[in-house]
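Exercise: predict the fold of this chain.
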Amino acid sequence: MMKKVMLMLALMMGVVLGMTAATPEGWSTDLAASKKIAAEKKRPMLLLFTGSDWCPYCIQLERNVLSKKAFREFASEKLTLVFLDFPRRTELSPAQRKANETLAVQYRVEGFPTIVLTDAAGKEFKRLGYSPSFMKELEEAVENWEKKTAADKSGEAKKASPAVK
């Protein structure tokens, strides 16, 4: 009898866990933790607002770009990834659902997928959607951010150093 109860409990847990939305490898769902990582690594963040289990363009973005080696390599070197999912057939924890909804309002998300590039503080500098030129647009946006960040630091260094006469 006890074995049957334990088996039934194990099966029920498997079903419940199977219904929980999974975060892809290399992505975080915690914006605060991601901000710290982005600041430490001096990288921008990519916030992906997605409907992973129902949105056709989100599924295509995952299949055609995000799961590919070129994106994974670029992201591992240049980005801090934040996964903000709005699934319909799988469950998020109430806390995660609320956090995602709050961020969707904060970043004025009107459709899925929405990709927002931010600095480590969360300030948006570029917004992308899914398109055939997604990787090119992403690479250009990050390159421009890196150039601007370097120029800003150079300007700050000049202001901080005393004038030589």
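Check your answer against the key: Residues 146 and 152 are 10 Å apart (CA to CA).
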